[in-house]
Design goal:
Elements lengths: L1 H27 L12 H29 L16 H31 L2
């Protein structure tokens, strides 16, 4: 049950923070083209940034919940939790960033294929 809660919480943070960050960035960036195509380098940069931030927040959440729930060792009280290292937190950014860019553009490709088959 602890593992289920740990993974559910980490993935809720991952996808929730990704969608929130992406929406905030898209609504505040005015450099996207007005020719009907929002899928240029600015859009990819927004997706990459939102994905990277989401990955870092998931990494932190996962690290803290593993300690608190005792998944990777003895349970630790809330006041004794330790943060993940800066190195591992920074490394979570590019991995998640690439993953979300691939996810978004893969989704676009599948949608375009569905539109062409009709």
């Amino acid at each position: 049950l602890s593992s289920l809660f740990h993974h559910s919480m980490a993935h809720a943070v991952l996808f929730g923070s990704y969608q929130t960050t992406k929406r905030v960035l898209l609504s505040n960036v005015t450099t996207l083209p007005s020719n009907g195509s929002n899928y240029d380098i600015s859009h990819a940069a927004i997706i990459a940034t939102a994905g990277g931030i989401a990955g870092q927040l998931q990494h932190i959440t996962s690290h803290l919940s593993e300690q608190y729930l005792g998944i990777s060792g003895p349970k630790v009280s809330f006041w004794r939790l330790t943060w993940p290292s800066m190195r591992t937190t920074l490394l979570a950014f590019p991995i998640s960033s690439i993953g979300f860019v691939a996810f978004e553009y893969g989704k676009l490709m599948m949608t375009a294929e569905d539109d062409n088959t009709e």
